[in-house]
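Researcher: Please predict.
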Amino acid sequence: MDQNQKVFVVTGANAGLGLETSRQIVDAGHRVLILCRTQEKCDAAIADIKNTNPDASIAGFACDMGIMDEIRNTSEHIIDMHQNIDGIVNNVGTWSSKYTVTKEGFETVFATNHLSYVLLTHCLYPAMRRVDDARVVNVSSNAHSYGKINLADPGYKKGYHGLKSNGQSKLANVYFTEEFHKRKPDKHISTYAISPGLVKTDLGFKFTNWFHAFAWTIRRRTGQTPAEGARTSVFCTLDPSVADQSGLFWEKCKPKETFPSAKNDDLRVKLWDFTNELLGIKDYFHEKVSV
């Protein structure tokens, strides 16, 4: 591997933002390890990227990001292959119009959109400590503006609605970014929450009812392409100028003030503790990960 080539992990990379984020990082001369739900999705994404860049340095790992045991196992395989990781783009995201739970008992959106970000970063943190400049990019959105953290019922089992679940998960991404920044013991590891803006993806058509699908059809007409939407993720992942701007919320490659919903410091700390307890993490930055 080229000495100047860095290694990045991108989740939810089979389509949309994740695919284009991976493509742009690879095109910048780096190696990307993509995580997709199945090996078939990984292979299709790799083929797509190699179609535009035959020399792309890329590998795929099948991992359902809603299943914590799969994240732990996949992280171990990644570190076996790459002891040094230069960054993670926690991009995976899902939406559901109805309440569903994973086989581990977590509500699906909360597990995929929030717990996976926290756990994958924890698992790969030792590999990021070994490099000079590591980045953790958490794909949130302006939907955190209507998010409410419900620690008593994080899956919104009572009164579930897709907007409640999505808003909570995007707010959780912001809070995770901020609290990670405040607690991290390593100055060279930076973290960013980003809003890609409105992007023309298929997210609003999956696991949804007819009304939500119709609304997404109308709304996404004014959106950016996935390639355009990926720019802020890639900027925060690669640009040397932002290495010392950790813990902020970004949009259009610039820092942006978070919405009033994200100003509760006490709740941010409680969410950190609550999430670590759910995941069985006792020492986030120093604990050896067991699988």
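Model: The first helix runs from residue 16 to 27.
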